[in-house]
Amino acid sequence: MDATEIGLWGVPLAILGGAIRVSTPFIFVSLGEAITERSGRINLGLEGTLVFGAMTAYAVAVMTDSPWLGLLAAAVAGLCFGLFHGWICKFPKVNDIAIGIALMLFGSGLAFFFGKPFIKPKAPNLPAIPFGAWSDVPQVQAALDVNVLFLIGAALSLVLWWAFRNTRAGLIVRVVGDSSDAARAMGLNPNTVRLVATGVGGALAGIGGAYLSLYYPGSWTERISSGQGLMAVALVIFARWNPLGCFAAALLFGGAGALGPALQSVGVTQGYYLFYAAPYILTLIIMIATSSPTRSLAGAPGELSITK
Amino acid sequence: MTDRFILNRRQLLKTSAAGAALGLASASFPISRAFAAAATVGFIYVGPKDDYGYNQAHAEGAASLKGIEGISVVEEENVPETVDVQKTMESMINLDGASLIFPTSFGYFDPHMLAMCAKFPDVQFRHCGGMWDKAKHPMNAGSYFGYIGMGQYLNGVVAGHTSKSKKLGFVAAKPIPQVLLNINSFLLGARSVDPTITCQVIFTGEWSLAVKEAEATNALVDQGADVITCHVDSPKVVVETAAGRGAFVCGYHANQSPLAPEKYLTGAEWNWAKVYKMFVDDLVAGTPLPNFTRGGLADGFVKMSPLGPAVSEPARKQFDATLAEMMKGGFAVIKGPLKSNKGAVVATEGQAFAETAIELESMDYLVEGVVGSTA
Q: How confident is the model at residue B301 (pLDDT cuts 50, 70, 90)?
């Protein structure tokens, strides 16, 4: 077999590569949202945080010539957005969903405003680790170029999954999310816990944005996110608030998204709009398959405004 | 206390509403418009105006008008192809006093621009790419476009010389006639070098979807395509991704060579400054604006990026020869015998569609050698 002719093998390879390349922002935003929602709050503003994080990371990387400083700046910017959301929501009778939508528009608008001068310059990219070096097929090498952020995201989902069950901090977040009254009886301040949880969630979303602008697709444009932040928030519900589930859902979504271009590239060209809908159809099928008429959403935190 | 506050607020609302009404009324008086400037020209873009692509090309054209005496330019970017664009046009007319408006995106034409044409018969509207038809559309509407397919043919000539795998890749947004003509021209240009070359096309379904464009580019390179070009609003992502994977790229809309200096071969660029200057000269002189404007390389509507360092000597020679042929005008890319990739005859022996042929603007096929489907 000629090294450049991989034919139909391109489809599974593209799905694998796509799952690794495309999923990282979904992983970070959905893990961040999982932490926030586990504490009993919904932050819909993560789409705005993602876009603002992408812009901040790119701008700082251009100015300092260091993608790592850009990443840090994006995390800090995300943290600020998260803390802002958490701070407003601590006031009585404030609707966290409405604030989230406001912050989504605010974050994107602010990113467009400050991002104008950074569309032209080119920023240094985050490094990738060539896990495909063993292969002499260039396509395999390209598919297995794994960015460090993907590995960090994978590790983080494991750590979070473990921490929610086994650590004091994890249990505090969960009790605040399940019952404010119980938390108060234990001497915890739900607002403080939620403030921290929303802040951490925002920081993770900012890191997701940095991945978009500094690695894949690797440039700052105003259309960079095209709704990925919102999809990631939906993935949390799909994953039943389980960090490992978030990771799996993000991989599934990334891989299914790569299906459309991959099929067209091997000559399956009819009905590509249908293939582009694959991630959404898959989501629907799994939602229907795992739903039950006898119980409500399993694993949903009791204090969430959508389940109350 | 509370009562007084409500009263005050009501009064405030009343007064401000009256004030706003007054302001609007005075803005729509023709007399106030005459005092503003000789003419105000409005530009509406669907995306950001520095996107290394479609919108940037138009914004550069708009910027070239700013030095002309008596002309003021108003612009709005990121306007969706929805009823939003109608509001933008209305505010440009009512608040800025625009007398000529260029809605530059394909989807603005029908029904949005046509609705505004009926509402404001004194304002001139010229749309980029739309099909103005004397029988169907009002006289204050019009359309302009350039024969950029010629540029894609020249891209194809260079790509055909450069490709080693004899497989080219095309990342396209939507299967509309302009895009199909570009894909076909790119392949036919390459086939003028080597008739065994094929071109794989991937449609992303949207004008601007950064991640999907990157995925499409990766998929094309995975399948062995070694020269990539595109027709999306912002080619930045495609150019950077393709060059990152080691493939050569041909640009589109604007000059993208700064993004990949080593891998950039050449590119088909718009030269809207020329077109907008033409319209504005007519406006200043008081002569009626043309309703149907088209032009190609010879008319200066379209230009090519300078050839990159990777272009070989034979490629350069054929590029120059073809360009010289096109500059004479009347060059035909689609000429018989030619079949579509579904086997239907699109041009019989001896039949040729020159760049000006109106049939090309309703193209609905991909030619033989293009791997892809229009639906």
A: very high
Two tokens, residue B140:
């204050």
The DSSP symbol for B113 reads I
* Nearest-by-CA chain A residue for B200: A265
pTM of the shown model: 0.84
Interface contact A279, partner B, CB < 8 A? no
| Surface-to-core class of residue A53, CB atoms within 10 Å of its CB (0-12 exposed, 13-18 middle, 19+ buried) | buried
CA dist., res. B285 & res. B232, Å (int): 36
For position B26, what pLDDT does the model report?
A: 42
3-state SS, residue A5:
coil
Q: In what order do the strands lie in the sheet with B143-146?
A: B127-128, B143-146, B292-295
Looking up tokens 């003419």 gives: B39
**Residue written as tokens 């095209």?**
A226
Mention every residue, 6+ apart, whose C-beta is less than 8 A from residue B343.
none
A5: chain B residues, CB-CB within 8 Å: 224
Closest residue by Cα to residue A156 from A274, A250, A67: A250
ipTM: 0.86
DSSP run (H or E) holding B345: strand B345-347
Q: Which of A114-123, A147-156, B197-206, B306-315 has the lowest mean pLDDT?
A: A114-123
**A95: buried, middle or exposed (CB in 10 Å: 19+, 13-18, 0-12)?**
exposed
Of A14, A143, A226, nearest to B209 by CB-CB distance is A226
Residue B284 has phi, psi (to 5 degrees) of -65, -40
How many other β-carbons are positioned within 10 Å of the β-carbon of residue A116? Answer: 15
Half-sphere exposure of A20 (CA within 13 A, CB side): 20
A52: closest CA among A31, A84, A68, A75?
Answer: A75
Q: Please check whether the domain covering B36-146 is classified as CATH 3.10.450.50.
A: no
For domain B149-269+303-371, the CATH class is alpha beta
CB B55, CB B49: distance < 8 Å = yes
Residue B362 pLDDT greater than 60, yes or no: yes
Q: Which residue has the tokens 């989504």?
A: A104
Q: How far is A221 from chain B (nearest CA, A)?
A: 7
Question: For the segment A203-233, what is each residue's pLDDT rounded down to a tens digit?
Answer: 999 999 999 999 988 888 888 888 889 889 8
Query: In 3D, which of B309, B155, B310 has the Cα closest to residue B228?
Result: B155
Stated as kind and residue range, the H or E segment containing A257 is: helix A243-265
- CA distance from start to end of chain A: 59
* Mean predicted lDDT score pLDDT of chain A: 89
The reply to whether residue B219 touches residue A270, judged by beta carbons under 8 angstroms, is: no
Q: Indicate if the alpha-carbon torsion angle B245, B251, B252, B255 is positive or negative.
A: positive
Domain borders along chain B are: 36-146, 149-269+303-371
Determine the 3-state secondary structure of B62 from DSSP: helix
Mean pLDDT of A37-45: 94
Domains and CATH numbers, chain A: 7-290 (1.10.3470)
Q: Are A39 and A197 in contact (CB under 8 A)?
A: yes
Residue A5 pLDDT: 61
> Cβ separation of A228 and B244 shorter than 8 Å?
no
Q: How far apart are CA B183 and CA B172, in angstroms?
A: 8
As a whole number, mean pLDDT of residues B110-139 equals 91
Does residue A224 sit at the B interface (CB-CB below 8 Å)? yes
> pLDDT-based confidence at B5, cuts 50/70/90?
very low
